Amino acid sequence: MQLENIKGRSYYLKGGTNTGVYIFEDNSALVIDPGLSNSRANRLIKMFEKQGIKVKYIINTHEHSDHYGASKVILDHFKDCKSLSSYDAKLVIDNPYIFNMYTYGGKSNRFFDDNFKNRGEILRVDETLDEGKIILNNEEFEIVNLKGHSLGHIGVMTKDKVLYLGDSLLNENILEKFNFPFIIDVESELNTLENIKNMDFDFGVIGHGNPLLTKKEVFDLADYNIETINKYIEQIKGVLDNKCTQEELLAYIIEKNNLILNYKEYYFSKSTLASMVSYLIEKDMVEYKIECGKIYYSLKK
Q1: Fold of the domain spanning 231-299
Q2: Whole-number pLDDT of residue 121
Q3: How far from 41 is each of 44, 55, 167, 209, 269, CA to CA, in Å?
Q4: Could you tell me the pTM of the whole model?
């Protein structure tokens, strides 16, 4: 495990989930998205201790356990360390069962929950962050709203003009592998991707895959994410020329795009589909009717 310098005091660590690090003048550190597991946390602690770095803050960009799961062990080791997130993310991080319930659509079961066995210990979030400028250890950072992939997603900009983006956009390999991206709010995600293209930064760090991107690469990737979302919206609209249930819609998406899903991924995809249908409803493009105990959706004629 090795810290990779980006610019100035801004660094990253590559991993299953990429981690951002900002090292202050006093050799303390801000850690952004430490990762999933206790073993990841212990490797981070060992690396920081070896370099004489004390972790002072952890910022969780959003409420998905592959980004925050390692935080508790780090907080227990560095006693004065504070955990930070948005208010919406805190609600789920402090109560992780909420994520399983709203993704599954009710009380989840062992088929779903067993997929989260590697999630680290339950975490506390000490303070919540609002969009805008903040001061940590006498240095200024900017918190940006990146809502869409999750309700509480934020990004962190350092004074080095390095923007830590979490999962607000996914690289091409991830999109090709999982294909149907997990999005809780489609309109917010599209707005986030457009807003990223208007932000002033030099480098971006994303949560999965190759971490470090130039500004142009971030902009290109934002466009690719937008194209991917719009591709699925058009597929859904095509099916909704005739009445269709959400289950039938999801089966069509899975078959057409050759998606290979496990139990958890099926419900992730179901959640994304529901968000896309809601997006079309809010655009006043879709109507519904209930027949024979089923809800059918169709495009407005």
Answers
A1: Arc Repressor Mutant, subunit A (1.10.10)
A2: 66
A3: 5, 12, 20, 19, 29
A4: 0.94
